[in-house]
Amino acid sequence: MVALVLTTVASWGIYALLGIGIVLVYRTSRVLNIASGEMAIFIGYVAATSIQYGLPFPVAVLFSMGAATVLGFVIFWFAIRGVMGEPPHVGLMITVGIAVILNGLMIVLFGGGMIAIPAGLPAFTTIGQVQLPTPDVVATIGAWFSIAVIAVIYRLTNLGLQMRAVAERVTLSAQRGLNVDRTVALSWIVGLLAAGLAGVLHGERSFVALSASAIGISALISCLIGGMDSLKGVVIAALIVAAAETLTARYIDPRYVLIAPVAILLVILIVRPWGLFGTVEEIRRV
Amino acid sequence: MSINMNTQRIPSSLPTSRGRTIALRRGRAQWLTVLLGALALLLLPGVASVFWVHLANVSLIAVIAAVALNILTGNARLVSLGQAAFLGIGAFTAGILQRAYDVPFPVALAAAAVAGGIAGFFIALLSLRLRVLYVAVTTLVLHFTVTTIFSFVQAVFLDSSGIILPLPSLGILILKTPTQWYYFLVVVAAIVVLGALNLLRSFIGRRWTAVGEHDLAAEALGVPVAKAKLSVFAVTSAVVAFAGALSAYYVGTFSFETYNLGLAIAYLAMIIVGGVGSVLGSVLGAVFITLLPHVLDQMFLLLDLKIRANVLAGIHQITFGAMIVGFLLFEPRGLAELWRRFSAAAADWPFRYRSVDRGNR
Amino acid sequence: MTALLEVEGLEVVYGHVIRAIQGISFSVGEGKIVGLVGLNGAGKTTTVRAISGFLPTENVRITDGRIRFAGQSIARLRPYQAARLGIAFVPERDKVFDTLTVRENLEVALTATTLRGDEPGRCRRYRSIKDILDLFEALARRADQLSVFLSGGERQMLAIGACLLTAPRLLIVDEASLGLAPIMRRQVLDMLAQLNREFGLTVLIVDQDVGGVLSIADHGYILENGRVVFAGSREHLLQHGDVKEFYLGQKEDRERGYRDVKQYRRVRRWH
To answer: ipTM of this predicted complex?
Structure first.
């Protein structure tokens, strides 16, 4: 029972982290990132491979975060910058293209097989009388710590303020002296860092593989349930999705994991298409 | 008599009537292209090897489905990631009917189209209140739901390794060899392409395009937006499901694994590379994307590079993705636009500009 | 007195077809208030968008002419670069961030210009959010509310306040009076005049209200159909018979109806 709860909490953290990345870049650049799962697993592969080359776990994580920064900038500069301000379906299709490219790169560069990301810690952590699987504990702590950091950046720092300003009015932001391209680039980098960390933590819990990019779908569903313009909504919706998936896997069949969140999303789309915490205007824009 | 001559001569130098304006734009070059194209299509099985005829057949099926998807995504601007699901709906409907009731081939195809239409109608109903991005995600959700159901159905009621279909027959004609299929598919694809061209010029097609451009503005102009969205989804999904059933019969077997997200993305790549919102683009894109992996393979064979099969799959994907991103960024109107520019230049060759009074020089 | 902003022979073409601006020249002297006035479609907004660097992004091209700010050509600058040179801009619409609080709105202006230069002539009177809240008491009361709840007048104050925080050298106000009651309009104009008097802030006002603008401006330019049709000092314009009659609505001894006014403008447009 405790393990089940911990599994849910760990998945919750990973989906929330990934979802926050999607919402962040969606708000500043109005591009719905379908490729977040592929981005996450790509960075996960970077970490896994660097561990295979002998780097210790923390260094490998740092190295993969460096890769995420570079990848975020490259994606923004060479693909997203050209389609900002275009109709929304163009940005969406661009990220579909990015997803396919990343998938191919994972095969060519990393072989595309299943690789674990061992943290090099004992299998179980004992807290009081309870024995907990360490990978889930690490994933939970890592994910929630990063979510807290991103929330603080977004709410309390100048960078966060600039991102919120650009998210609302691009023109006015520029008139006030904000370098909009720079702010959007930074938001993509933060989004990639969030996605990459989610991928690494997912790999640390189980393994990275091509099929693991399905976590991006779960995160996307979380974003839509929560509402595309609300960080709080994504975090809460991620819990719903994680719980639904864990329960389906435990009591029905692990093969049909995605059905439960999909069913919830369908209900939400029918009764409240703008999401639990989204604003009604948002749906007019997209 | 001389007066009459005069009146004949003046307009010949200027495009004063609609007919002449069209004649200026569509010269003999176009008819020549159409004729040559038709001839090439008819003679292809005579000159090409069986493998290339097979590829042509796969391309023709892709053309049918891509034309429909392009109307949905390019004209009505409803981005669909559910293409694989609709193809699968067609295949499974036809296959199950064939297996359970041994229905004739044409009936199975019709049933597939109806099933696809109904599924499309319900998805449209669901996404009626939503705009572009949400429609994309709804179709993505449909994709996962449907493929999960397929895997369940296949594992429980059918063979989990794949379902084998009998050779289809059209009355006395049995479709057996690739060449027989080829002529059948050429006719079907031609009907679909001409149908699409005519539909888009009718009031129905214009409504769909109007809704795609700006649904609020269309509504203000009196276009029944809900009806248009429902009909475009139902009609195009029916055609896609029809193509799915055709494809299942052509391959002779089908399995849920075929209908993965990669297939949906390949179709998206077809319409982007070909030209979003253009029927010609759908045709070019479908052929291009179907042939691309094989052309790449041939190229590697020629270069004598030993590449493992899974790495080759990776390279295919990278090329696909690069095509999607590249065309969106640099040539959003796709191959159709490149073709238009090329044929315009070819028609005027060897001159750089078209003469307005071409009759006189 | 050297000119801070100089526009020479500016020509702007929309979508390769429409020449919205057909050779406008004007200059804004350091420490002056200059009015750019005209009816809808005269080209006022296009002109100021050209100055603040927004045209290249929208299928609009500057086909001719020069724009110089403090001796430097700025026609090719990106919008935020123009802002960082000290050109503060109060747009016609969308002038505040609705989803941010009043305080955050001011913070955006403050953070964006942390790189503000030390050129002479930049108005440095207002350095902190508190300075602005002291200046506008109405804003101080609502400092932590979302700015979507502000009234039209308060939004205008907030927008001007945010501009003051960027250490402006030139303040451009597009349609200062749009949607404001006459008394508020007067207040905004008086405030601009006061800022100019006390801190030597250079102001370019773009407006339809010829009378209002000329009451505080040192110089005025009247635009029609993308051309300057009248230019001169306030006194000159206020004394000019045609301006009085056709833009200020004051009737001299001559009796002319609405049709005559239209006809006059039509002739005037094409010189």
So the answer is: 0.87
